[in-house]
Every structure is written in structure tokens, then in C-alpha cells.
Amino acid sequence: MTGCSIKTRLFAIILLTSTVSLLVAGVLFIAFQSMKLKQEMRASLALQANVIADNGQAILVFHDAQEADKLLASLKHDRQIIAAFLLDGDRQVLGSYRRHAEDRPADALHLNELELGKYGYQETKDHAVYARPVLPRGNKIGHVVLYADYSRYRAILTHFALTVASVVLVGLLVALLLSWLLQKMISGPLESLAAFVGKVTVDGDYTLRTHDQSYVEIQQLGSAFNSLLTQIGNAISARDQAQEALKRHSLNLLDQVHERTRELEQAKEAAEASSRAKSAFLANMSHEIRTPMNAIICFTRLVLANSESPQQKQQLNRVLESANLLLSLINDLLDISRIDAEKMELDFIQCNLYDMVDEISQMLITRMEEKNLEFIVDASETVPRLVVADSLRLKQILINLLTNAVKFTDTGHIRLGITASETKPGDRADVTFTVQDTGIGMDAETLARVFEVFTQGDVSTTRKYGGTGLGLSISKKLLELMDSRLRVESEPGRGSSFSFSLSLECPAQPKTAPPVPAYLPSVLLVEPRPQSKDHLAGLLRSIGCRVKSSNSARAALTLFEEHEFDAVFISLDLDGLEALHLIETLRGNRRLSRSAVVLITTPLTEQKVRSLPKEHYPLAFLTKPAYDRERLRQLLTDEPARSETDVFALPPAFPAFKYAKALVVDDFDINRILIMDILQNEVEYFVEAANGSEAVELLKKEKIDLVLMDVQMPIMDGYQATEEIRKTLKLTELPIIGMTAFAAANDLDRCYRSGMNEVLTKPIEIDKFKAVLQGLTHSQSPVQPPEKIIMAELDGVRLPGIDVGKGLKTLRNDTGKYRTLLLLFHQTYRGKFEELDYHLQNGQWQEAADWIHAFKGVCANLYVTGLAQHCKKVEAALSTRSIDENLLRTFERQYDEVMNQLAQLSPDSGR
Questions:
Q1: Which fold has domain 784-911?
Q2: Residue 547: beta bridge partners?
Q3: What does the pLDDT look like over 311-332, one tens digit per residue?
Q4: Hey, which end of the chain has fewer CB within 10 Å, N or C?
């Protein structure tokens, strides 16, 4: 009733109250009459039942059915009784009465279900039932049951309801009339007062007063309103006086504001002119400096390219470094101008994060070496290689932070840490960069202003550390443009830590290098610097090597007396020529000379060592800072170029091999030419086929060593051709590499199921192509059903599924070493099947795929060919995120069989 007048509200209240009262009274009256009628019906039935019971005692005693019917027929005068029954002691009907033939209540069919043991009154939907026992002298000889309908009861109730409805209707009409008359007595004075208020509001005449004396309350309300009008009149008078005074003050203030605005405009014009002059000066200055600097850099590079003197090259490199530093200063000045003018734009492109870190390291490593600082780059395994970022600005930020760290650090180390959240290709990763140093640090006052332009902790640029104070300010502002912020933590004397995080898009990542072969598990690290030693040792362990470390050549030789190592990493940071003397000692000992030697260098020291005669120092090199696990794996698996005297170079992952004849099957001749160009150094002679049918016919006539099979071709595709080669031609040992443009899991699975050894996706990556080809060269085995197992022996022990002959051939028939590697394989993977089972039971498909991939690589390197073939099938199934239970159990059985057989090899008979 929102918005209704008080007149309407009063009328509605009176009418509603009357209506509710009448309805409640009517309902109560009907309910009372209903109860009264039921009580009368019950009393009548009880009376009739008592009479029948008294008169029917003799009839029940003599069991006279005819008299029983006559007795019950006397009930015809009671119109409410529709049926009656006289039951004997066995509850059998002795006599009955029905007012009409159709009157057969449903209850009569269930007399035995009535509670006849006592007086009882029961009601059903349509009838009232009264039953009482016949008890002459306390002995029960029968029962009387009476049925009455509700028709008379309902007729009376209907009559009552109509009467009540009529009374309520008349009462409502009376209430309507009274409410209409009575509400005027209250609403009239209120309406009069409302009209008065409206007049005052419309006319704005606050001298009017109301004099209504109808009710005490209305009189009080009128007096209060009259008082309010008096106060309003006084307030308006005061307001008018204040407005007049305010008007005078406003005129004075306008004059002052006008004068102040004119002064501010003059100051603004002066500031803008100063800013334009500064920008013009910086632009002109940078242009004037860049012109000769570009000439200096270009001519220096030309001279450097034609120079043969190492000393001259070193000097020219210093010139280039100085020129680049000067250019970076010019760029800082221009960046400050662009950022201040809000004209800085970011350019996000796909870039290689690792290549960027390499470039930065090469730029700064010389300055760090001059100050004898350790430079450590620590990149976690989750850091993506390829990201989408503004590589130029990101590199600029890192260079600024690292240069700042070098400038304020005299001893100790500088660490660049990179971590990233795990992600899938196409998603975004949160990549965090942290630059820590062990320099002078900063106090709270310096931290508060460290990001201010042209501000330094040492205040004056002419003091010890120098600089312009632009680097940190530019880095902070660039990160703000990238929706990030630069964080800093520092304490005086304890160094500083600068960090920031970027959310970067991660495209598809390049393929990783093969795992470290099982026969290079043991590494000795000789590094005097503790930070570098701990970092590099952890890096080697993370790729699967077993590492021992020492900080001197003498300690390293002591370790050689207790252990044998497959590779030795020696740092040139050892005192004097200690590193080179250690290499000579290793070379002169026949037992120790079997260890591959890797020399840890920096760009400067590596050049010096490489200038020595190769016949004296045939080494592999690892350049600091070492952080890239893939490069380290490549170093431990690639075959370096070496001569017969290069006994210290890393042993090749596999013996050199070249295919005699390869069949290239593709329906496009351009693709065939491309494949032949890629593999021209791996294959002596090529044969071509345009489809699978031609390939099968060629294989019937010629001996082929390798097949490169396209999948999608006319006439006969790669799947059909491979199945024909395996089943019909029985060429189960022929290596077949599939090539497809589809990388879906089901397509790859179909390739493996058809019988292909490996599958490459287009566009083909050349490095991966050659790596796959190299792996097939030394791990190929017949493609055959799992139940056909290769049997071989090693020192009398039968080893099912292990090609002992090929394993020994790879290790130059060194039986002891091959046995040691097999035992190491057994110790490493014994009981580890539960890990795979755990991953599968918990739906950890990626972890399971990683486990099986690593296990497959080790099996292939050791020629555990049976398990390797099973691994391929399991890996193909895992790529679909499902695996057949029978396949898994078959793989487990062969896994257990191989482990049980390897347990028979005696560990005491090692090399």
C-alpha cells in the first residue's frame, strides 16, 4: 500500500479487521457444530446398540437367526443407520439389516478386523461404525455392529455453512459502511494539515500559520510545524545575509585565482621549454656521439676479423667492449627521455632465453674475471628455452642489474638465478629472475632512493664506484611497462638481491638432447671455488651423473686411488699450472688415461689453452658459466673430433657408422631431395620411391639398410607399406623411420603399431633427425612379437632379451665393464617398477611417460632390446593417456624376468 493516502489506509484497516473477525467467528461456529453433530451421532448409535444388545441376548443364546433379523429391522425408523449386524460368539453374522439392497459398506466385509473386544466407535471416509459386545452376566456371547452414513451430517453442515456465509456477507457490508463513515473523522484533519503544508511549500510563504483544534495530537503537530516555520524563516534571513557576504568574497577570490593561474601558466611554459630543450640536447648529443662510435665499432670489427695476433685481438676486443659500454650509456640517456615522454614501446617476439643469457654472460664475464669474481648462472629445469618477450628490453634489464652487481662487488660471487612455474606449450609461465651479489650492500636510507634518476648510493659519480645512476631507474620503469616490479633486498656488508617476475607465453619447446649414456655415470669434479663447485656438481647430478668433487689436483689424485671415473672435469682456476699438470699426470698413467677429460674454462682462458699443441692437450671444453643441462648432456653424448692420439677426449656415444643404401619414400620429389641433402653424410647411396607400393617392389629386388617412409601417400600409404614390409617381406630388422605432418597421439600410435621404429613430425628438425638416425644405428633390433625373446649369455649366465653381442661390440669387447654396467642398471632400477605403477594409479600420465622414456633410453644403450621394444609400446599407449592392462602386465613380467636374470651376475667379477 505504498503511496496510499491515510484515508485509504484507515478504510482498509477497519474493513480488514471486520472481515477477519467475521471469518474467524464463522469458522469456529462451523467447527463447533461439526463436533456437536458427531457427538450426537455417536450417542445415538450407542443408545441403539445398547437396546439391540439387551434385546438380543436370548436370540444369541438360542442362535435364532430369524428373530435376529426382526430385531435389527426395528432400526428402520432411524434414518441415519444404513446397516446393522448381530454377531455370535464366533464373530459369525447371525442377523443383518440394510436400509437398501445396495447399502453394503466396505466395512461389513471386514467384520473380523474390528476391535470387538470392547466398546468402540470408529470413523472411516464415508461411515461411522459403532460396535459393542453383548455381555449378559459378564459373559461375552456376541457383538452388535451399527453403520451410519454421513449424508445427514453433511447436509446439516452445509446448511450451517450457508447460514454463516450469509451472516459474514451482511457483516462485511455493515463494516464497509461504518469504515467509510468513521475514517473521515480522523483523515479529515490530517488532510487539512497536509493541504496547509503544500501551500507553504508551493508559495514559499513562511509567515503562514495553522490553527486546527480538532484533536490534541493534531493540535500538537500543528504547533510543532508553526515553530518549524519560524526557524526556517530566521534561517533564510541569515542565509541571505551570508550569501551577500560570500558574493563579495568570491569576487575578491576570482581576482586572486586569475592572477595565480597566470603565474602557473608562465611556470608551465617555462618547464615545457626546459623539457624540450633537455630532450633536444639529449637527442643531439646521442646523435653526435653515435656517429663516430658506429665508425669506431665497425672499423674495429674489420681490423679484428683480419688480425692474426692474439695480443692484438685481445686489445681490439677491449676496444669493442669499451665502445659497447659507451653506447649503452647513450642508450640509457635516450631511454630516460622516451620513458619520461611516454613514447617507449615494447616489442614482444619469440626468443631463446638461454641464448640471451649466453650473450649477457659473454659481455660481462671479462669484467668479472678482472675482479676475480665467481659468476654463477642457476636455471631451474622448469625454465622454458623459448618464450615470447621483448628480448631487447629484458636483456637490457639483466645487463643493468648484473653490471650494477659487478660494480659494487669486490670479492665473492654474483649469481643470476632463473626459476619458472611448470607449464604446457601454449600456456604462460611465471619466470622469476634474481641477481644476487656479495658486494657492499645498502642501508635503509639508500634503499629508499636507489631507483631515483641520477641518484647513487655513493652520491658522487667521481667517487670509488662511479656511474650515472640511470640503470636501476630505467630497469624499474621498463618492468612497470611489462606489468612487473623490481624488488630489492640488501644489508650493508652483506650484498644485495634484485629480483622481478614476468608472465611469459611459452610456445612449443625444442627437443632435448638424448639422456647421458649408462656407461658415463661416474664423474670427478676438480674446482677450487666452493660456489662454482657446488653449483656444477648439482648440475651434473641433475642429469644423472654420480659426482665426487675435490678442490685441488692432489685431492683429485687421491680420489683416483679409490675410485675409477668415466669423466674428469678440471677447472683452470686451480693455482698456476696445476690443472695442466693434473692432465699430464692422468695422461701418463695407463689406468687413469681411460677417463675422459673436460677442461672448465672461460672465454679468455679457453683461447689460451686452445693455442697449445693438440697432441699435448686434446681436451673437451666446458665454458663458464655452466648452467644449460642440455648442453652438458650433449657434451657427454656427442662424439668429438679426435685423432688416434686423442686419448683424453670423451669416448663417442656410439662407434662411427654410415648406411650403405637408404630408401626415401615420399610422393613429393622436393621432400625426397631435402631428405637426401640432410643425410648425405650418413648414407652412401639413395634409392627413391613415390609411394608405398613402389617401395615394397624395390625391397623385393634390392637390399636396403634404411627406409625413410612418408605416411600420407597415394596408392599405398606409409602404414600399409610398413605392415607389408614386416609381415609379407619378413624384414623385421630393417629400420624404418616414419615422417608425418600429424602429431596427434593416435597418429603416432598407429605408426608404431604398423611396425615403424621411430616417427618424426614435419617440418623435420635436422638435429633431431640425425639424433634419431644415430640412435637407430646402435639400438636397432628385429621388430617382432613380444613373446619372441633374444637369448644370450654373459659368462655362462643366460640373459633373456639382452643383445650381449652388440653390447660387447660397443664397449670393444670389454666384458668386465659391460657386466659392471648391467649390474649398475640392475641396482638402479631394481624394484622401481612400483614407481611407474604408482604414477598410473594416480593418473600422473606425464610422470609415467617421463619414467618410461628414461628407462627406454637406458635399455637401448645397454641393448636390453626386449624391454626396449616393450617400452616403445607402453610409451605410445601413454601418449593417449590410457594403457591396456594386459600390455602393462606383459611389460611387468619381462621387467621382472630381466631383473631376476641380472641378479645372477656376480658383483665380485667386475672390471
A1: Four Helix Bundle (Hemerythrin (Met), subunit A) (1.20.120)
A2: 523
A3: 677 677 767 767 766 766 666 6
A4: N
Instruction: Decide if 638 contacts 651 (C-beta within 8 A).
Output: no
Neighbours of 720 (CB within 10 A): 16
Q: Locate cell 435376529: which residue?
A: 68
Residue by residue, what is the 3-state secondary structure of 87-148? EECCCCEEEEEECCCCCCCHHHHHHHHCCCCCCEEEECCCEEEEEEEECHHHCCCEEEEEEE
Q: Which three cell numbers stand for residue 68?
A: 435376529
Residue 8, SS3? helix
Taking every pair of Cα atoms in the chain, the longest distance, rounded to a whole number of angstroms, is 152
Which CATH number fits the domain 523-637, given the four candidates 3.40.630.30, 3.40.50.2300, 1.10.579.10, 3.40.50.970? 3.40.50.2300
What's the pLDDT at 130?
A: 85
Pairing of strands 81-88, 93-98: antiparallel
pLDDT per residue as tens digits for the range 480-515: 888 888 899 988 888 899 999 999 888 877 766 556
Cβ proximity of 703 and 747 under 8 Å: no
Classified as helix, coil or strand, 353 is: helix
Pull the grid cell for residue 755: 611396425
**Residue 371, Cα to own-chain centre: how many angstroms?**
44
CB atoms inside a 10 Å sphere around CB 224: 10
Contacts for 140 with CB less than 8 Å, ≥ 6 apart: 89, 133, 134
CA separation for the pair 146, 103 (Å, rounded)? 13
Give me the pLDDT at residue 881, please.
78
C-alpha 854: how far from chain center: 25
For the domain made up of 349-505, the CATH class stated in words is alpha beta
**Which CATH code for domain 6-158?**
3.30.450.20
Q: Which three cell numbers stand for residue 854?
A: 628414461
CA–CA distances in Å: residue 135 to residues 113, 383, 587: 20, 103, 131
Q: For the chain, give me the number of helices (H) and strands (E)?
A: 26, 24
Distance CA 466, CA 651 (A): 50
With the C-alpha atoms ordered 609, 611, 615, 618, is the resulting torsion angle positive or negative? positive
**What is the C-alpha separation between 499 and 35, in angstroms, rounded?**
89
Cα–Cα dist 463/466, whole Å: 6
Angle at 168 between CA 162 and CA 172, to 5 degrees: 145
Q: Could you tell me the three cell numbers for 750?
A: 598407429
Among positive and negative, which fits the CA dihedral 787, 792, 796, 799? Answer: negative
The DSSP call for residue 907 is: G
Single-letter amino acid, residue 530: P
- Give the DSSP letter of residue 74: G
